[in-house]
Amino acid sequence: MNSNLNQLHPYPFAKMSKLLANSTPAEQYEPIKLGIGEPKHQPPEFVLEVLKQNLAKVQHYPTTNGLPELRDCIATWLKQRFELNHIDANSQILPVMGTREAIFSFVQAVIDTPTPTTTSTAKPFVVMPNPFYQIYEGAALLAGAEPYFVPCNADNEFKGDYSSVPAEVWQRAQLVFVCSPNNPTGSVMQMQDWQDLIALSDEHDFIIASDECYSELYFDSAPVGLLQACAALQRDDYKNCVVFHSLSKRSNLPGLRSGFIAGDATLLAPYLQYRTYQGCAMPIHHQLASIAAWQDEEHVAHNRALYKEKFELWMQELGDLLQLRHPDAGFYFWVKAPKQFVDEHGEADDEAFVKALYEQANIHALAGRYLSRDVAGENAGKGYVRLALVASVDESREAISRIKQLLNS
Ligand SMILES: Cc1ncc(COP(=O)(O)O)c(C=O)c1O
């Protein structure tokens, strides 16, 4: 077996199951699931209709680079949404089956590990935020690279300070992950943050892989994306830059497995070849349904309005009691465990808080330390709990009332 497999951590939800193995949920209540970030709003009916009408397309093999019509409509969407000067649908866009598989396989395709003939035997670095979406780390480990973690904490507005990365790390860094809007912290990179990172990429020659799958779930202004920052610098070749987008969160279609990667054509051409061998092509009826979803903004605005209503409700009802920080975008609260839940050192205890939420309120949440790694004895997620506001408005009301009761008891 591939010995790198031994380096993989148990997934956060496996750690949660272990934590709660001997706990019983408050049985007087129905469960409210705020742990997993699976969208629960209704998918658009017109997209499902296209899917149904095209089921017979299963008779054909799809091509790896997808239908030209799909790439064209993604190009139109990207140009409009991110104010691009130009993007070539044939060489700068590739449909993928959701961002998760693409994030994973892109790393396998681009990371170049030392061979017996290379001078340095040191592993390359993949730089990533901490806490982070777990696939970044797993992809890096299985590609034979070493993760380097950039803490995202209150000192850097939960965005991570990439300028703090030491020169020795940059020398071996081949790829940097950014998650904006960030899961779990809810932070968003600003134009200047992107441009600073692009300057570092020019200096040290690394790829920037920007996971933007929450980009459409914003409250007031639309987050700036990496390609937008390139366009503002007139870098229409998007040198060393790629973005990942998805219909899962934007359109409540997590089961459609539809997204795309876009950016530097010199990276996408070999990656397309990699994918041809990997055998990951989106079924044609999913591609046709995706075209319908990317061409409509009304359902996305409606989706945003539902999240906005829930975040406003939580802020109004629990903003003070839980000291909630409204995310810049996305659908997560990244909450410090309240003062009733402290460990033996008097520090906020995320495990104790999620356990109490489960045992006393039958609310499922995720302990922040499970999304994070220890670096020099510090875990950037420790003390925080992630709440995914995916449940309905009514369930949100109910969750708020139970949490109030829990904190006041
Ligand atoms: C940060 C982040 N990236 C990527 C994904 C993968 O989404 P999908 O594969 O559905 O596009 C998720 C899903 O929760 C996520 O939270």
Plain-language structure description:
The structure is a single chain. It is built from 14 helices and 14 strands. It is α/β, with parallel strands linked by helices and 409 residues long. It folds into two domains: 150 residues, Aspartate Aminotransferase, domain 1 (Alpha-Beta Complex), CATH 3.90.1150; 248 residues, Aspartate Aminotransferase, domain 2 (3-Layer(aba) Sandwich), CATH 3.40.640. The longest helix is centred in the last third of the chain and has 21 residues. The model has no long low-confidence stretch (mean pLDDT 96). The site of pyridoxal-5'-phosphate has 13 residues, from α4. Pyridoxal-5'-phosphate binds next to α4.
- Using the 3D structure, state the CATH architecture of the largest domain: 3-Layer(aba) Sandwich
What is the molecular shape?
A: globular
Instruction: Say what the CATH topology of the largest domain is.
Output: Aspartate Aminotransferase, domain 2
Average predicted confidence as pLDDT: 96
Distance N terminus to C terminus?
A: 52 Å
Largest sheet descriptor = 7 strands, mixed
Question: Unreliable segments (pLDDT under 50, ≥5 consecutive)?
Answer: none
Number of H- or I-type helical stretches: 14
Q: Roughly how many Å is the radius of gyration?
A: 21 Å
Which structural class should the secondary elements be placed in?
A: alpha/beta
User: Can you say what the CATH homologous superfamily of the largest domain is?
Assistant: Type I PLP-dependent aspartate aminotransferase-like (Major domain)
